[in-house]
Give the backbone structure.
Amino acid sequence: MKVYVKNKLFSLGGSSFVVDENKNPVLNVKGKIFSITRKKYICDLEGNVLYKVRNKWFNWFIHKAFIYDKDNNKIATVKDKWFNIKQEYFVLGYKDEIKIGGKFFSLTCQILKNGEVIGTIRREINFIRDSFELDAKDEDMEFLVALVIALDNIKDKKYK
């Protein structure tokens, strides 16, 4: 299944929307207006929170973002490495071993779960707003959208 994560053009908190290939809404991403940690909530279409994503408040050299479930339990930490030449990202604390390989900040990267490719993220070049195409299996789509939001949060923290 392919979904598209697009940051809203005018959003003070960094909200986004997620649509399928037919441009039907799938999920909403609500950002907090005044949030040092870039807190965002991934919600279903009824407004129920599925995941919360936030950055680590203070980063020295290794940047991190945290993913929480609907009950506010931390289920994953997304982090890069000290010298991240390959631009790899690792997901720690999740039930499976997940690694994001390739260059997230260029155009394409792959999501590997226990060494098997389960998804591909393509960054769409757009100078007005960030947008991503996520092609993945349906079973963990909401979590993978949260993962894309976490990676985008890390990118924003590093470069803005």
Q: What stands out?
A: The first strand starts at residue 2 and ends at 7. The chain is about 10% helix and 45% strand. The chain has one domain: 2-159.
